[in-house]
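Subject: design request, 428 residues
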């Protein structure tokens, strides 16, 4: 097959790295890609929201399979766009249509969906600018802390945990009255705060059948001890020590199955990844959020553990034949440490020369915000690299990933030194 991956981050580099190993893949393209994807595929200078240009590439490169990495083109309807092109309507695509992508594209949609199908989640209410006064009154009687979420896509920054009623009221004003998150914040979901420990479960659906992929835990805050601003993810671990067989069975029975049954009942043929963000509360799973794609940096620890041919898995997803595939998973532990640009997740500089990549051994280097320029690799984003190590123990995987993070150099680099340490010390 000729395969095209849309996206430019660490997730897409991980996809490309894994698919390039498959004998089913003849030619591999990534649009727009980064310096890492260029090592295993051909980058195409096309934005992942430029649907006409993507369609032209599909035609000229004779693409057989399209894999959509990021959420934005999915929510914007890239699948619907291809279905509307007479000559491309039969293109095999991994990714849901715009309706299915609403699981991520609208927090209100996903909460209503969970309520309809009895999927365990935090109690919530949704408010708009027209119901601002009702929302403020609702907050006045809410337990603390309280979670406020922008309804739409806000690049991972649309969730605020308010510790006081005054902060919650100000946040609601900022979102609904001050357009803090633009159109994404035109609705605000106010949610009960759940106390527990977080993890992510990943499901592949072909519209009827499904496979559960390895679970992961990521680390969102910029600094050690989960302090500081939220980011797109500073590291991840898979498997997760507190997700034992009994708990994962509960996840499948109480979350995965009703989610897929709900999609089918609503006539949504969902072909792609469903990322389920969970909180384990007193041994029970509660859904925090759905995403309509794989997570990043979770992909960088999940994919190295999958031993099944990934191109075969993607093809089966697109063609409705997942029931014919067995997913084999390595028992090893994978840990990734993300290196970010100084200043991230706020203002940061690009174009810093990255050195010492060639010195890294026994880790897989996934490029995120990088660019190949004048024979060198330079920074081109907030999250720059994800360094994944695999080992027979969590301790060894943590050590190898952290050693690699210490070795890589660029001006202003920052990384967390505690990725996975909480799990080494974890006890139920």
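Subject: RE: design request

Done. Sequence follows.
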């Amino acid at each position: 097959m000729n395969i095209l991956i849309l996206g430019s981050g660490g997730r897409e580099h991980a996809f490309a790295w894994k698919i390039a190993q498959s004998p089913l893949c003849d030619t591999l393209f990534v649009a727009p890609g980064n310096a890492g994807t260029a090592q295993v595929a051909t980058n195409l200078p096309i934005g992942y929201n430029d649907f006409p240009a993507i369609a032209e590439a599909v035609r000229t490169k004779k693409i057989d399979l399209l894999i959509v990495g990021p959420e934005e083109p999915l929510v914007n309807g890239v699948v619907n766009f291809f279905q509307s092109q007479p000559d491309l309507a039969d293109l095999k695509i991994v990714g849901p249509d715009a309706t299915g992508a609403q699981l991520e594209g609208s927090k209100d949609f996903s909460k209503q969906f969970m309520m309809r199908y009895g999927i365990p989640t935090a109690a919530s209410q949704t408010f708009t600018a027209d119901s601002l006064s009702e929302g403020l009154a609702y907050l006045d009687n809410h337990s603390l802390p309280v979670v406020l979420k922008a309804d739409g896509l806000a690049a991972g920054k649309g969730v605020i945990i308010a510790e006081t009623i005054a902060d919650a009221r100000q946040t609601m004003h900022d979102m609904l009255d001050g357009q803090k998150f633009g159109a994404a914040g035109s609705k605000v979901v106010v949610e009960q705060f759940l106390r527990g420990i977080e993890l992510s479960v990943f499901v592949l659906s072909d519209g009827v059948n499904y496979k559960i992929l390895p679970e992961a835990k990521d680390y969102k805050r910029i600094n050690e001890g989960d302090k500081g601003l939220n980011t797109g993810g500073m590291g991840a671990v898979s498997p997760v020590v507190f997700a034992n067989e009994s708990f994962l069975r509960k996840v499948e029975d109480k979350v995965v199955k009703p989610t897929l049954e709900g999609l089918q009942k609503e006539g949504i043929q969902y072909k792609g990844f469903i990322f389920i963000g969970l909180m384990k509360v007193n041994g029970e799973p509660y859904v925090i959020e759905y995403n309509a794609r794989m997570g990043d940096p979770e992909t960088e620890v999940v994919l190295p553990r999958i031993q099944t041919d990934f191109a075969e898995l993607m093809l089966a997803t697109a063609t409705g034949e997942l029931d014919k595939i067995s997913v084999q998973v390595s028992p090893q532990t994978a840990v990734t440490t993300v290196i970010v640009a100084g200043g991230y997740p706020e203002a940061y500089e690009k174009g810093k020369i990255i050195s010492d990549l060639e010195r890294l051994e026994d880790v897989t280097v996934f490029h995120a915000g990088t660019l190949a320029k004048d024979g060198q690799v330079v920074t081109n984003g907030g999250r720059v690299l994800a360094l994944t190590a695999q080992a027979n123990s969590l301790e060894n995987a943590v050590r190898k990933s952290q050693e690699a993070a210490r070795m890589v150099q660029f001006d202003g680099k920052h990384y967390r030194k505690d990725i996975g340490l909480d799990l080494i010390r974890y006890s139920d």
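Residues 2-85 form a domain with the Rossmann fold fold (CATH 3.40.50.20).
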